[in-house]
Amino acid sequence: MSSGDRERTVLHERLDRALGNDAADTLMGYLPPVGWADVATKSDLALLRSELQVDLSRIDGRLSHLEARLQELDTRTAELETRLDTRSAELEARLDTRFADLETRLGTRSAELEARLEAKFERTLRQAVLALVMVMIAAVGAAVSITQMLAG
Description:
This protein is mostly helical. It has two domains: 1-39, no CATH class; 41-125. 89% of the residues lie in helices and 0% in strands. It has three helices and no strands. The chain has helices at residues 3-19, 21-29, 42-151. Helix 1 (3-19) crosses helix 2. It is rod-shaped, with a radius of gyration of 57 Å. The mean pLDDT is 91.
């Protein structure tokens, strides 16, 4: 038991003898649980309040600075988004143009190739028909010759 506890016990016993147990308990309840040096005074609280206000002012200043920085970042982010949107639209337009050019070129090449293939097919077909006609003429000529030889 510390000296403060012993003193409180002795005081309670004296009050109990002088005033009775209930009154002693009531009076002891009004005493601080620690020594008077540990009890905060109004001036202690005023000083603490002043220090807290200074700290809060500093915190408010820092928060204002952070809010300004966040606003700056929001602005920069919006600018970047706008630039990206513009670039994206430009790239999309360029790709559309290039694909359209490619489709046109492929269409032209396809038409040229189709025309060349048709011409070659017609030439080959004419040659085949001509060869077939010549074979038929030769066959008819051979048949006539054979018929004349047999008749003659």
